[in-house]
Specification:
Helix 4 crosses helix 8 and helix 5 packs antiparallel against helix 6. 31% of the residues lie in helices and 25% in strands. The chain is of the alpha/beta class and 254 residues long.
């Protein structure tokens, strides 16, 4: 049985720790810092088996070098054609591999960065900074059209799929989700749940694909009315990619 736990880093990062059935080894996803991973492994009495990287940004990769020095046998999986140079197994669209007895399929999801990939396993997805609960990543390198196409990867997943993104942005994202979908009862209900959790410093993740399909404006761009957008952000054409770009521009200045 696969178990996933959150290791907190920086102000709002999550490094995900994946444990296999033997319960002795751990795979970590996007270790932006090494120190909290070392502390977790010591506390749990486990060893590191591998690292999964979704994209090259420093807050997802800074810990890799120290972890590899401490565990020289481990394999680092990551995207092809990436500025990050410490990848041992470079992965692209539809590549597959197994770690700790868990099978993963890779999908390329550019938009936030051009090298971004996601890891899809049975009942879960590690999606880095592409999809957030109630939101999506900023467009630092890719285009809005690329990011909208990346959203289709998630829309095709089973509703029960657990969503493991790497930042605790949900509270702020839900404020925007409510502004862009004022008549969506699911949004308002989830926003109240998120506010209650964060007031107690409880993690809002993982989410599920089914929930995100109901509340996330960036997954639902084709369903949002143009009238819901402020006049300065309304696209000229009422198409999904155009509305997605408009929503992203609005969120950047929200």
């Amino acid at each position: 049985m696969v178990q996933v736990e959150a290791i907190k880093a920086y102000n709002d990062n999550y490094i995900w720790a994946l444990q296999g059935s033997d319960n002795k080894e751990v795979v970590v996803v996007d270790p932006g810092l090494a120190e909290p991973v070392f502390a977790y492994l010591k506390e749990q009495g486990k060893t590191l088996a591998a690292i999964l990287i979704t994209h090259h940004h420093w807050d997802h990769t800074t810990g890799v070098e120290a972890l590899k020095q401490a565990y020289p046998h481990i394999t680092v999986y990551g995207p092809k054609n990436s500025p990050f140079t410490q990848v041992d197994v470079a992965l692209g669209e539809d590549d597959t591999f197994s770690v700790l007895g868990c099978d993963f399929k890779v999908r390329t999801t550019p938009g936030h960065t051009l090298d971004h990939i996601c890891y899809i396993g049975v009942g879960l997805v590690f999606c880095g900074d592409t999809l957030f609960s109630g939101g999506c990543g900023r467009l630092f390198e890719g285009s809005a059209e690329q990011m909208w196409q990346s959203m289709q990867v998630f829309r095709a997943l089973d509703d029960n799929t657990q969503v493991y993104c790497t930042h605790e942005y949900t509270q702020a994202n839900m404020q925007f989700a409510a502004a862009s979908q004022p008549n969506n009862a699911d949004v308002l209900a989830y926003q109240r749940q998120v506010e209650a959790k964060r007031a107690q410093d409880i993690n809002t993740l993982p989410s599920t694909i089914g929930l995100e399909k109901r509340i996330n404006p960036f997954l639902r761009a084709d369903e949002i009315a143009l009238s819901a957008l402020p006049p300065q952000y309304r696209p000229q054409q009422d198409d999904a990619a155009g509305k997605f770009a408009a929503l992203r521009a609005w969120k950047d200045n929200f």
